[in-house]
Amino acid sequence: MKNNSIKKLVGLVVLVIVLGISLFFINIDIDDQKKVEPGTARLILYFGEGNVREFSGSAVFGLTLLEAIYSASVHDHFDFLYFVDKEGSSQVLKIGDDVNYINGFSWRFYVNGTEVDEVDLYKKVIKENDLIDAKYQ
User: Fold this and answer.
1) Which of 23, 59, 86, 105 supports an S-S bond with 41, CB 3.0-4.6 Å?
2) What whole-number distance in Å separates Cα of residue 36 and Cα of residue 8?
């Protein structure tokens, strides 16, 4: 009886986490204008080979750029490999099938058109109305 209650509680916690991630980033179609709806943030990932994915949702207080990309990867089922050291500096290893720093290509990150250094992805907090571009170039 006690184990059954624990299993139900764990299942409920997992469901709440998954729903929370899904509510933050909802996959939407790309339009020609990069508009951000009031109270939301948008993330656009420009993968190699011309593949583009876009996500939009409420900007959750304290959510970092790294966490936003992670949430998108969980929601849309693509690989996101990264490292964060004890000082909070981050390094992206791979997003989707695109490996960072291979064959002259690397991931570049921009918030509202301003480049964010890869080491600061875990420190950069997303705000409402932010437009985030991640480009593999």
Assistant:
1) 59
2) 38
Tokens of 130: 């932010």
79-97 pLDDT tens trace = 999 999 999 999 999 999 9
**Contacts for 20 with CB less than 8 Å, ≥ 6 apart:** none
First vs last Cα of the chain: how many Å apart? Answer: 55
Range of the domain at 19: 2-136
pLDDT-above-90 percentage for the chain: 62
Q: What's the structural domain count of the chain?
A: 1
Which tokens hold the place of 16?
A: 């709440």
Closest C-alpha to 89, from 125, 134, 120, 126: 120
What are the strands of the beta sheet with 40-46, ordered from one edge? 26-27, 52-58, 40-46, 131-136, 107-111, 114-116
Token code pair at residue 52: 């583009």
What's 22's domain CATH number? 2.170.130.30
Question: How many other C-beta atoms are found inside a 10 Å radius of the C-beta of residue 111?
Answer: 18
